[in-house]
Design brief:
Number of strands: 9
CATH topology of the domain at 33-131: Jelly Rolls
Number of helices: 2
Helix content: under 10%
CATH superfamily of the domain at 33-131: Jelly Rolls
Strand order of the largest sheet: 1-8-3-6
Structural class: mainly beta
Length: 147
């Protein structure tokens, strides 16, 4: 078997340029901080129509998400609430930042998304934020939409 010295392929198979068209960058986040010794976890979340999602929480490391189906109501501390539709991405830096919303923005259809998270050693995937801390940090939350 011969191999291409520039890009080794068993049997010397010709290299197809299709890979240059097959890849599409969905998100590019920087800077990111990954806790030393972190592990990575990828989860698939399915919310029923209108489900408000996880209560306010935080992650110990960055999280990167992709909406597979439906639409996610997404809100991080200091950022306005937004809706991320199927094919869209979201990310959060983790650490001290509160993740207020990740629920289904649709009242009549399921929403699904996939998230890869970097978890600090010995920390849970997510930690819920107590009501007292939410009150103390209320000034850091972006203004709520009218209505």
């Amino acid at each position: 078997m011969s191999e291409n010295p520039q890009h080794p392929h068993p049997g010397g198979a010709p290299e197809s340029p299709s890979w240059t068209r097959a890849v599409k960058v969905l998100q590019d986040a920087s800077p990111i901080s990954i806790p030393e010794g972190a592990s990575a976890m990828t989860i698939h979340v399915e919310w029923e129509p209108g489900d408000p999602g996880t209560p306010p929480h935080r992650h110990s490391g960055p999280a990167f998400g992709y909406v597979v189906k439906g639409a996610v109501r997404f809100e991080l501390e200091g950022e306005p609430e937004r809706t991320v539709e199927a094919g869209g991405t979201f990310w959060e830096p983790g650490g001290d930042v509160i993740h207020y919303q990740d629920g289904n923005a649709l009242a009549d259809a399921r929403t699904e998304f996939v998230v890869t998270m970097m978890c600090a050693p010995g920390k849970p995937m997510l930690e819920l934020v107590e009501a007292e801390e939410l009150r103390q940090r209320a000034h850091l939350r972006a203004p709520r939409p009218a209505g």
